Structure formats: structure tokens, C-alpha cells
Structure to design on (463 residues):
């Protein structure tokens, strides 16, 4: 393996471009599919809880594979794993487009999630290896702005594609940026990064980790039944076993010592988990509210929801650059507070006009844009170079765990208020009654996240 040093400015810029494309692709797919869920539900005649698994199985698969692929990238080369991930993701997108039933769609979404894990486990680690700390926040800001660009275009193009060409066209559309990134990596990026080359892979730890996540998330979907509680408890027991095993393994798939000995790393990851837990389900809830209750088309609902990620695109690069000069905890804590206030306002969604919904989405977007770039900079700058892969895997894991926990909470609330039924004109009142409960829980969680964000400590005090 090469040392991982970039051979010139052209390759350095190409790394940033490819990272930006990859950062755009996966959130774009997720946000576009959220707008298509009602259409998928109607065509395949599935209930709201099962329909939620179209989003959740993708996140679950990503979370199960992200840490192992991060470690494999450290051993065999992050460029290699990244490239394989882009190929797998693009191939799975084609399979999703031709899924004949809900079982096939869920299976293909799981494959797509595995490809996403390969991409996210290595993308930010490569960026951190390429850009020095004084430029890192700016680079992270560009990549994260690409995430929000995907979130911005997802609802708009997802709504338009669903309305005029059907929901399957969304998956075909994602192949274009995927093939573009694959071409650039093969033709333009020749360096490789594998600081752990030659070390063994912890298969036992990876299997226990994946099993624990699967049991927890599957159990959440089965709540409030007794069976669901047993499965969730089994998942937590498996996770405790994972921690025990990893602390006694010479070459663990996930170095748990970083959480014990590095306060900045631990609290930044906790803040990320809380932020994603409290915000990811917002698009899912609003998509159903705007289409099933208000009666908007998928296209018009997308135009309403695009106001949030557009603001993120504008704010994220600015907050990333700012975090190169000002301690990230101050900026990200302000963003977390603004996000919490916006979520609290959505408790009264039933009484809000479309203009008020759009205005509140603008505030939500500003809060998220202020939080994510500085927090990402803090996580990736809090570890030594040899632990960059672990930091990237940890950051992605917190994102995915938070997103799954967010969907798990909402699916639990749906199970209580609606049951395993489709959301139809006959049960919209139950759906509306569930919204204040959902947003109350999400906003309280986000307010608690302000403490984790502010209490992490300073990057510059460590350097």
C-alpha cells in the first residue's frame, strides 16, 4: 500500500469532488424515497409500520456494516472499499427500481444500505487524511453541504419523479451520480490509505455487533408487544457482550477505549446521536401529513419540504469554515438549541399554515447547518491519525443509530395510535393525534443534546 499522501493538488481536488458526490448520493436517495412512500404503500398495499421499514431496513443494513467496513478499509485500503461501495450502491439502486413486491424491495434496500456503509465508512476518513487541520473544517463543510444538497433535491425531484414517472424512477436517477463517482475514482484517484495493513480482522466482534443492532431495531418495530420487549432486551444484552469482547481483543473491530479516554470524542459522538435521533423522522412525518392530511401531491409536498435542506446547504460551509477558527462546541451547541426550538414548534403542526411550516423548516435547517459541520470537524480532529478510520466509522454509526432510533420511536408511536394499518382518510385523526406526541419526544431529546454538545471540551486545548 502507498503511504496515502496525495501526489498533487489535482488529485486533492478530485478527492473532495468524489467525496461531495458520494455525500450527495445517499441522503438524496433517502429523502426522495420518503416522498415516494405513500405511492409505494398504495401500489404494494402495505401498512404504515411495514412501509416504515423501506426506510429503516436501509439504515439498519448501513449501521450493521459500517463499523466492519471501516475496519476493513483501514486494513485493505479505504479507496478500495469506497470504490466497491459505490459499485454496490449503484447496482442495488437498479434492483430496487425493478422490485416486484415489498419483500424484494426491502431486500434490495438492505443491499443498498451495505453499499452506503462502505461509502460512509471511508469517505470522511479519506478527507481527513488529505486535508490538514487548518483546512479540515472547510473540506468537511463542502462535503456536508453536499449532504444537504441531496436532501434539498431529494424532496423536489422525488416528488416530481413519483408524480410523472412513478416511484421506481427515483432509483434509476441515482445511478447517474453513482457511475460518475466510480469513473472519477478509477481514472483520477491513485493513492491508497491503509494504516492498519496486515492486521487481522475481528470477525467475532463484527458478528456480535451486527446481531445486537438487528435485534434492537427489529424489537423496536414489534413494540409495545411483550415479544418486542424481549427482542430489544436481547439486543442490548448482545451489545454489552460486544463491549466486553472488544475490550479484551488485541485488534478490535471498534476501539471502545476512545469513548472511555477521550471526552471530546465521546461527547461529540453523543451529540451527533442525539441530533440525528431527534430530527431524522421529521421528513417522514411531514411527508405523510402534507400528502395524507392536507392533500398535497408528492411534488407540492416536496416543494414545501425543500426549504429545510436548502438552508442547510447555505449554512453548512459557513459553519465549517467558522469551526476552523472558533471552537466547534460553541457553534454546534447554538445549532442544537435552534433545532430543539424548531422541533418544539412542530408540536402544534395541526394548527400551522403551509407558510408557517415552511418558515419553521427554515429555522430547522439553519440549526442543523450550524450543528453538523463543526461537530463533524470535532470528531475527526479529536483522534490521532491512526484512529481516523475508527472516528469515521464511529461518526457514521452515530448518524445511522440516531436515524434508526428516530424511526423506531415513530414506528412505536404509530403502533400505539394507528396499529398495523395503512394511513387512509379513515384513520387520519389517529395519525394527527400521534403528531404532538412524536414532536414532543423529539424536541425534549434535542434539548438534552445541548448539554452533550457544549460539555465536550475544546479541540485546541488538546493540540
Amino acid at each position: 500500500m502507498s503511504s496515502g499522501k496525495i501526489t498533487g493538488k489535482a488529485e486533492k481536488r478530485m478527492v473532495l469532488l468524489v467525496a461531495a458526490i458520494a455525500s450527495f448520493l445517499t441522503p438524496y436517495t433517502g429523502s426522495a424515497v420518503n416522498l415516494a412512500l405513500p405511492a409505494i404503500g398504495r401500489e404494494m398495499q402495505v401498512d404504515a409500520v411495514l412501509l416504515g421499514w423501506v426506510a429503516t431496513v436501509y439504515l439498519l443494513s448501513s449501521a450493521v456494516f459500517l463499523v466492519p467496513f471501516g475496519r476493513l478499509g483501514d486494513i485493505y485500503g479505504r479507496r478500495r472499499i469506497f470504490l466497491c461501495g459505490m459499485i454496490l450502491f449503484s447496482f442495488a439502486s437498479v434492483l430496487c427500481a425493478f422490485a416486484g413486491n415489498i419483500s424484494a424491495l426491502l431486500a434490495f434496500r438492505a443491499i443498498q444500505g451495505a453499499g452506503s456503509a462502505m461509502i460512509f465508512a471511508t469517505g470522511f476518513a479519506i478527507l481527513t487524511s488529505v486535508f490538514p487541520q487548518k483546512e479540515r473544517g472547510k473540506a468537511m463543510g463542502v462535503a456536508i453541504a453536499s449532504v444537504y444538497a441531496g436532501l434539498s433535491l431529494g424532496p423536489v425531484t422525488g416528488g416530481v419523479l413519483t408524480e410523472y414517472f412513478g416511484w421506481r424512477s427515483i432509483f434509476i436517477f441515482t445511478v447517474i451520480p453513482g457511475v460518475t463517482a466510480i469513473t472519477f475514482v478509477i481514472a483520477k484517484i491513485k493513492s491508497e490509505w491503509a494504516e492498519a495493513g496486515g492486521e487481522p480482522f475481528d470477525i467475532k466482534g463484527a458478528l456480535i455487533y451486527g446481531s445486537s443492532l438487528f435485534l434492537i431495531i427489529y424489537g423496536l418495530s414489534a413494540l409495545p408487544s411483550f415479544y418486542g420487549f424481549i427482542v430489544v432486551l436481547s439486543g442490548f444484552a448482545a451489545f454489552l457482550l460486544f463491549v466486553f469482547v472488544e475490550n479484551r481483543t488485541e485488534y478490535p473491530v471498534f476501539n471502545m477505549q476512545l469513548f472511555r479516554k477521550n471526552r471530546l470524542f465521546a461527547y461529540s459522538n453523543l451529540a451527533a446521536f442525539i441530533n440525528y435521533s431527534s430530527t431524522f423522522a421529521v421528513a417522514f412525518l411531514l411527508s405523510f401529513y402534507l400528502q395524507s392530511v392536507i392533500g398535497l401531491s408528492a411534488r407540492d409536498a416536496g416543494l414545501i419540504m425543500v426549504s429545510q435542506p436548502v438552508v442547510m446547504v447555505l449554512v453548512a460551509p459557513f459553519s465549517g469554515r467558522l469551526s476552523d477558527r472558533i471552537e466547534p462546541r460553541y457553534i454546534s451547541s447554538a445549532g442544537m438549541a435552534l433545532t430543539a426550538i424548531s422541533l418544539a414548534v412542530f408540536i402544534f403542526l395541526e394548527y400551522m399554515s403551509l407558510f408557517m411550516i415552511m418558515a419553521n423548516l427554515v429555522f430547522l435547517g439553519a440549526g442543523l447547518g450550524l450543528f453538523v459541520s463543526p461537530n463533524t470537524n470535532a470528531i475527526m480532529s479529536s483522534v490521532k491519525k491512526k484512529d481516523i478510520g475508527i472516528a469515521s466509522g464511529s461518526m457514521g454509526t452515530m448518524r445511522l443509530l440516531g436515524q434508526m432510533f428516530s424511526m423506531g420511536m415513530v414506528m412505536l408511536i404509530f403502533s400505539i395510535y394507528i396499529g398495523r394499518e395503512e394511513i387512509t382518510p379513515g384513520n387520519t385523526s389517529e395519525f394527527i393525534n400521534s403528531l404532538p406526541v412524536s414532536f414532543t419526544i423529539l424536541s425534549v431529546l434535542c434539548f438534552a443534546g445541548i448539554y452533550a454538545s457544549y460539555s465536550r471540551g475544546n479541540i485546541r486545548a488538546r493540540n
The chain has two domains: 9-190+253-454, 203-252. Residues 203-252 form one domain.
